[in-house]
TrEMBL record:
Alphabetized UniProt keyword annotations: Membrane, Transmembrane, Transmembrane helix
Species of origin: Corynebacterium yudongzhengii
Topology relative to the membrane: Multi-pass membrane protein
Designated name of the protein: DUF202 domain-containing protein
Cellular component terms (Gene Ontology): endomembrane system
């Protein structure tokens, strides 16, 4: 891949790339943390964990393309936003969190404890 130079002293493409990397890390940690409660709802937790790890993998694999497009857009003076990717990740995380909340609310006493 050819390096495209932009005139952005704030290094916007680099900050955006770091943001998506932190998002991938957060999604992966959240999905792996859920495995702590997999004994209570094994199939549901495993499915959610796999879906979230796949989402993180998809974000990670498309990050290079997004970085190059953002860098090229800055060099040309026109940067197109990516609301689709943002809404997809946000929607997946909202579904993920709400399903976990439902599992916590509907679980019998003592299933979900924060302290052992």
């Amino acid at each position: 891949m050819n390096a495209i130079h932009h005139d952005d002293p704030g290094l916007q493409p680099e900050r955006t790339s770091l943001l998506w990397t932190r998002t991938v890390l957060s999604i992966t940690i959240a999905s792996l943390t859920m495995l702590r409660w997999s004994w209570a709802y094994p199939w549901m937790i495993y499915v959610q964990s796999v879906v979230m790890v796949l989402l993180a993998f998809a974000v990670l694999t498309t990050q290079g393309r997004r970085y190059a497009a953002h860098n090229l857009g800055l060099a040309r003076g026109v940067v197109k936003p990516n609301p689709g990717g943002v809404f997809l990740v946000a929607g997946a995380l909202i579904l993920f969190a709400s399903s976990e909340l439902v599992l916590i609310i509907l679980s019998p006493p003592g299933v979900y404890t924060l302290v052992d």
